[in-house]
Amino acid sequence: MVLAVFRLEHRPIRDKRISTHLALTARAFGASEFYYSGHHDSHLEESISQVISDWGGSFHYSFISNPRSFFRSWRSNRGFLIHLTMYGIEISDRLSILQDLSQTRDFLIIVGGSKVPAYVFDIADYNIAIGHQPHSEVAALAVFLDLLSSSSARLRHFPNARFEIIPSERGKRTRVVSEHSR
Ligand code: SAM
Fold it and tell me: What pTM was computed for the model?
């Protein structure tokens, strides 16, 4: 089933790097769709697109102007809403049920920014904490996705990449695997 990530309230100046990192983390750890609300940002989308072109895989991204109706539609048509928040239930207390559910329905994993609207806590099927200390949406997303896949998603193959890493004890080694144009 599909794992998708939703970044709430993106602000182009303040959040450019962190929203890019969220999209790249989503892609690297098993999600295949990325959505964001707030401000449309073509620079953010170009950064994501560049990584897909260089490093392969299939990954869809889109700006959503009305997140509340998008969430309603997701619940009606695709599956579950999982909101990551330090106020939620610790992941270790819900991991096995979430792993079971993810076999049959799509997940939309919602992460916040500076302020999360109250309705998100109500509309979510699960409010999940990665520990109960404040940290970062990128850290929360990485840990959540890695646990959900029992660490398998980050080791999968990304087809149609231009580059691949040659794992090395020292230095940075890559090989060109495809010359497709950008
Ligand atoms: N007070 C916020 C909260 O509700 O978690 C922290 C804001 S933090 C800068 C931005 C986002 O990081 C949050 O909206 C949440 O998605 C994620 N986050 C931060 N700490 C988290 C934690 N311990 N567990 C799950 N998600 C967390």
Answer: 0.95
Tens digit of each residue's pLDDT (9 = 90 or more) over 52-99: 999 999 999 999 999 999 999 999 999 999 999 999 999 999 999 999
User: CA 27, 182, 11: angle at the middle one, nearest 5?
Assistant: 50
What average pLDDT score do residues 111-115 get?
89
Ligand 1 contacts CB of residue 133 (under 6 A):
yes
Q: Which atom of ligand 1 is nearest to the CA of 111?
A: 16
Whether 120 is in the pocket of ligand 1, judged by its Cβ within 6 Å, is no
Residue identifier of the C-alpha nearest atom 22 of ligand 1 = 86
| Cβ(32)–Cβ(56) below 8 Å | no
CA of 83 relative to ligand 1 center, distance in Å: 10
Residue among 59, 36, 25 at smallest CA distance from 130: 25
pLDDT digits (tens, 9 = 90+) for 122-178: 999 999 999 999 999 999 999 999 999 999 999 999 999 999 999 999 999 999 998
DSSP strand E in the chain: where?
A: 3-10, 33-38, 60-63, 79-90, 106-111, 126-129, 163-165, 174-176
The token pair at 8 is: 């709430």
Decide whether any atom of ligand 1 lies within 6 Å of the 8 Cβ.
no
